[in-house]
């Protein structure tokens, strides 16, 4: 998170409105297919979303926005409740994520924290 020490972990520490406010103020969100990714889509924040077993065609951000979906559909098992990680998720490397984030660099917009959706 921009402006926070790199060792800051906010998991379980924020109320939903505070969490949404942080996402709304971000200039880029990198997330698995979780609430953070869905909030980024809702606020129009550029995002890199990593998918494993769930199909991004059904659960991912719209193709029209500043979003990149990373997955390997050819390896997807599709069991979202499996005890083992889906191979489609494991196929995504840090290099893939960094490349996707860098490709969205021109779409980043920095704005003060307001919690308001972007236009």
TrEMBL record:
GO terms for biological process: lipopolysaccharide core region biosynthetic process. It comes from the Bacteria. Keywords: Glycosyltransferase, Transferase. One of its GO terms (cellular component) is cytosol. The keyword Transferase applies. Gene3D superfamilies: Glycogen Phosphorylase B. Pfam families: Glyco_transf_9. Transmembrane segments: none annotated. GO terms for molecular function: ADP-heptose-lipopolysaccharide heptosyltransferase activity. PANTHER family: LIPOPOLYSACCHARIDE 1,2-N-ACETYLGLUCOSAMINETRANSFERASE-RELATED, TETRAACYLDISACCHARIDE 4'-KINASE-RELATED. This is Glycosyltransferase family 9 protein.
């Amino acid at each position: 998170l921009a402006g926070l020490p790199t060792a800051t972990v906010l998991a379980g520490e924020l109320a939903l409105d505070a969490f949404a406010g942080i996402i709304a103020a971000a200039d880029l969100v990198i997330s698995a297919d979780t609430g953070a990714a869905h909030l980024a889509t809702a606020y129009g924040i550029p995002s890199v979303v990593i998918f494993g077993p769930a199909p991004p065609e059904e659960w991912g951000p719209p193709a029209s926005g500043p979003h990149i979906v990373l997955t390997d559909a050819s390896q997807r098992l599709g069991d979202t409740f499996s005890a083992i990680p889906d191979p489609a998720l494991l196929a995504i490397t840090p290099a893939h994520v960094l490349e996707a984030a860098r490709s969205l660099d021109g779409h980043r917009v920095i704005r003060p924290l307001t919690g308001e959706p972007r236009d």
